[in-house]
Amino acid sequence: MVRKIERDVNRFKKIVRGKIKSDLRKYITHGEMIGKTGGEYVSIPMPQIELPEFRYGSKNAGGVGQGPGDAGTPIGRGGDLEGAGGAGDQAGRHILEVELTLEELAQILGEELALPRVEPKGKANIIEEKDRYTGIRQTGPESLRHFKRTYKKALKRQIASSSYDPVDPVVIPYREDKLYRSWNATPLPRSNAVIFYLMDVSGSMTDDQKEIVRIEAFWIDTWLKSQYDGVTTRYIIHDAVAREVDQHTFYHTRESGGTRISSAYTLANKIIDAEHPIADWNVYVLHFSDGDNWGEDNRYCVSILGELLLPKCNLFGYGQVESPYGSGEFYRELEEAFDDVDNLALSEIRNKEGIYDSIKEFLGKGR
């Protein structure tokens, strides 16, 4: 019975997984799903899924092929009754809340978008081995002999053989009584990553653009956390000046000043040098903006990217979120300045529907 239940549960999980994969583009654009995240689980709303089964009605209740009527008569209520009647008393269509671990969600994302595995770099990828004394053996060096276990085993043997004298409680362990501590080599992976999210919060970036950034950042986080043992996330906002903030401030701040993108790039580079040296960290920098920038600042940004940031990054991604107020010029500047740079990814995100393709453009090379 238990095996049958487990088989049915596994079958149900496969159906749910297949449903999520087939509708992944739709789920990616739904911001409310992110709000249901809790700990290591995410709750996904989807239409009720029911396994096929026979349902029997009550006797003499009528049905297809019973009662008065001629061939071709429509089954059900007639058109003149449409919309009639008061409040109903029947159950409506239900929504099923399906819980998945973030690891399962990342796996579905990787399979559906055909994302390659990330290839970490730097010393942070070295796997150390540490010996832990986790077991007991019957052989070993005397220096690792477990005194308490050996004494107890010898005592039990002497009591069982009636050779133990309480008046003269001498316990002498034989060879077969001796037990020794044993060890196992435990791998300790040290692959760490830091993700910098940079966002323009000047007046031209509306709440709709920030919502797109929030959704895309959630999915990128989910994938990268499935690839690394430890992920640190840093947030930088900028208008004419840049500052590091917490996650809530990142998504809820809006300024009215001008825009100098170079201020954010300079701050990110300073933090990397001070706290995340590339010998020990895999660095990801993702910048979102509507493409408006102070004209003379574009050249400075290109210089900082080419000389300072790109050599330190596994991936630098620039996502240009379309805005009714943004010019979009910065995207073209980067496109012209960096032709076919392996660790630079550019993406134009016109609306929520563009998030799906943008994620693949950022992560599609496994950097």
In words, what does this structure look like?
This protein has 367 residues and is an alpha/beta fold. It folds into 3 domains: 1-49 and 94-114, no CATH class; 127-187, no CATH class; 191-363, 3-Layer(aba) Sandwich (Rossmann fold), CATH 3.40.50. Helix content is 34%, strand content 21%. The protein is built from 10 helices and 10 strands. Strand 9, helix 9 (329-337) and strand 10 form a beta-alpha-beta unit. The two termini are 47 Å apart.
CATH C-level of the largest domain: Alpha Beta
Number of helices: 10
* Structural Rg: 32 Å
Helix fraction, binned, reads 25-40%
The strand count comes to 10
What's the CATH H-level homologous superfamily of the largest domain? Answer: von Willebrand factor, type A domain
Please write out the topology.
Layout: H1 2-22, H2 24-28, E1 41-47, E2 95-101, H3 102-113, E3 127-137, H4 147-160, E4 180-189, E5 192-200, H5 207-227, E6 230-238, E7 242-245, H6 247-252, H7 261-275, E8 282-289, H8 297-309, E9 315-321, H9 329-337, E10 344-349, H10 355-363
Parallel strand pairs: 5-6, 5-8, 8-9, 9-10
Antiparallel strand pairs: 1-2, 3-4, 6-7
Helix pairs in contact: 1-3, 3-5, 5-10, 7-8
Give a nutshell description of this structure.
The protein has three domains: 1-49 and 94-114, no CATH class; 127-187, no CATH class; 191-363, Rossmann fold.
Which terms summarize this structure?
Rossmann fold, 6-stranded mixed β-sheet, two-stranded antiparallel ribbon, 10 helices, 10 strands
